[in-house]
Amino acid sequence: MDRVTQLEDAFDTLVKVMASAIAYLSRKASHKQVNARIPLTVLGNTEALTDDDLASNRQELVADLIAQAKDVQWRISQLPDTSDDPNDNTHLAALETELHQANNEYREAVAEARDLCAQLDKLVDRLCDEQQSLRTLLDD
């Protein structure tokens, strides 16, 4: 697996861990009304934990998030440097020239194939016409 795919997987895992942590904390927190004018609404059932248990779980979730974020950061640091290397530019220019040459050769080959196809069509038409003429002569 290449480095970019590994980074994508690590980032995907980080996002999943974060979403799971938010969902867990939302489900386990004891929701308290903070403003008398705004009613407290909770979607679904909550399984409230004590404040100490929730704080302990929250610290564990934060540690997991930090570990996953450090993994993503390490994978980013392992990506190749994007600085301009003169050798890379020369190599890319040579590849581009080679690509243009191959593309021109392909176009010439296609044009030649079309020309040969047209010649073959003319030959087949001529043979059919001659055969028809011979049949007409033989039938008379």
UniProtKB/TrEMBL annotation:
Single GO BP term: regulation of transcription by RNA polymerase II
Gene Ontology molecular function: any one: transcription coregulator activity
InterPro entries attached to this UniProt entry: Med7/Med21-like, Mediator_Med21
Compartments in which it is found: Nucleus
SUPFAM superfamilies: Mediator hinge subcomplex-like
Primary residence: nucleus
Keyword Kinase: no
Keyword Transcription regulation: yes
Pfam families per record: Med21
Entry keywords, A to Z: Activator, Coiled coil, Nucleus, Transcription, Transcription regulation
Coiled-coil spans in chain: 92-126
Function description: Component of the Mediator complex, a coactivator involved in the regulated transcription of nearly all RNA polymerase II-dependent genes. Mediator functions as a bridge to convey information from gene-specific regulatory proteins to the basal RNA polymerase II transcription machinery. Mediator is recruited to promoters by direct interactions with regulatory proteins and serves as a scaffold for the assembly of a functional preinitiation complex with RNA polymerase II and the general transcription factors.
Summary of subunit composition and partner proteins: Component of the Mediator complex.
Entry similarity comment: Belongs to the Mediator complex subunit 21 family.
PANTHER family tied to this protein: MEDIATOR OF RNA POLYMERASE II TRANSCRIPTION SUBUNIT 21, RNA POLYMERASE II HOLOENZYME COMPONENT SRB7
Protein name (record): Mediator of RNA polymerase II transcription subunit 21
Organism of this sequence: Malassezia cuniculi
